[in-house]
Design goal:
transmembrane helix; Poly_Biosynth_Transport; 78% helix; membrane
Length: 397
């Protein structure tokens, strides 16, 4: 669900950042939501078709959870769509409140369900799904208007298909770019377990999540602010200084603390948690490089969507993923110690991500100038601040 959710909508939601008016953004919103419904329905049909072949391989509990997958993919996809809609409208208070309410709601539901149905693991899955419902419902209830909802009318689906064709660069380039990004965090445990055993995969998974948490909490928040501002005000004199401020803030508050945490982990882990955690500390030190590199680039990747440079994003995201896979296979072929293989993959991926960020920063001024020289079809100048009327956080409050 966490892997498939961000890509189930074929990344059409990223096209919202390139929209130059609220009307255009609401059309993309309808397109993204409809795509999410269609793709999750296809996942359900495929699951139904192959379920007879999976019955003998899965326990009853696993089969029940597998049936929840299409619904979970839909909700996770809607999470991405609603997030993009809030970011596009700079509804930062609504977005922040939703990202606070979701984990609180999930924890509360799990605790209540755990006391009522103490032996039923389905409570954990159900609470996770319901928290996604709360998240998207909260955002849409505070930001959607009747005019926005009119785009969902079946009478307008032909228009949505035309917009899908005009935004084909997003599923063709941004979708594989997102898959590549997800591969950097999800492929190492899988491949390392095949080469070195499941225990190494466990250490790897724990280590990455420890250094990835600051990226999710802080860097993605900076990215939401930066993307929302740039998608509505594409003036060169405003964007470039703001980008420098976001970069320096992210460097000082996120990237450097991750590296410091990684440097201390090999010493602190065995002292605090015991000697059996020593190897996990070494893995944390290695994956801190990837965490720091990802935290630096996370706030800026959607600028490629805003300025329609999707091919650049694919290159930036694909190279680190390819180096991760190559490093693991090379380490396994040479029979290296697992930690040496992990260091190779983290160094290569971090260097590639840093080079990609440097390339993006170099291309950003040219992308802004190009956007300013090409007015949109409806006469809106992309360099002008593109604010659209909506229920603001303040009025909703």
């Amino acid at each position: 669900m966490n892997i498939g959710g961000p890509i189930i909508g074929l990344k059409f939601e990223s096209a919202m950042f390139a929209a130059e008016s609220k009307h255009d953004a609401s059309i993309v919103l309808a397109l993204s939501a409809l795509t999410t419904v269609v793709m999750s329905s296809i996942a359900g049909v495929l699951l139904w078709a192959f379920m007879p072949h999976l019955v003998g391989m899965l326990s009853p509990a696993a089969r029940w959870m597998l049936w929840c997958l299409p619904f979970g993919l839909f909700l996770a996809g809607l999470w991405s769509v609603s997030s993009a809609w809030a970011i596009k409208g700079e509804a930062t208070l609504t977005l922040g409140a939703a990202r606070f309410v979701q984990p609180v709601a999930m924890t509360a539901l799990q605790l209540v369900g755990g006391f009522v149905l103490a032996t039923d693991a389905a409570v954990l899955v159900g609470a996770h799904l319901l928290s996604h419902v709360v998240y998207s419902s909260f955002i849409f209830s505070r930001t959607l208007t009747r005019e926005d909802l009119s785009q969902f009318s079946p009478a307008r689906w032909l228009l949505l298909l035309k917009h899908a064709y005009s935004h084909r660069g997003f599923p063709l380039f941004v979708l594989p770019a997102q898959i590549s990004y997800l591969s950097v965090s999800n492929l190492p445990p899988l491949l390392l377990s095949l080469l070195y055993g499941p225990e190494i995969a466990g250490h790897c998974g724990v280590a990455y999540r420890l250094v990835a948490a600051p990226v999710s909490i802080a860097s993605l928040a900076f990215g939401a602010i930066f993307t929302g501002v740039v998608s509505r005000n594409r003036d060169h004199e405003a964007v470039i200084p703001f980008a420098r401020k976001v970069f320096l803030t992210n460097l000082l508050l996120v990237s450097l603390p991750i590296l410091l945490f990684g440097a201390l982990a090999p010493t602190l882990a065995p002292r605090i948690l015991g000697s059996h955690w020593a190897i996990t500390g070494q893995f944390v030190a290695a994956f801190a490089l990837i965490g720091a590199a990802q935290s630096l680039s996370a706030p800026f990747v959607e600028t490629t969507s805003i300025f329609r440079s999707q091919g650049l994003r694919l290159g930036i995201e694909f190279v680190p993923a390819a180096l991760v896979v190559t490093s693991i296979l090379l380490g396994g072929a040479l029979e290296w110690h697992p930690i040496n293989t992990v260091w190779l993959l983290t160094i290569s991926s971090a260097v590639a991500s840093t080079v990609g960020l440097a390339l993006l920063s170099h291309r950003l001024p040219a992308m802004i100038r190009r956007a300013a020289q090409v007015p949109s079809a409806d006469g809106v100048n992309p360099a002008e601040p593109c604010r659209y009327a909506e229920r603001s956080d303040e009025s909703a409050d």
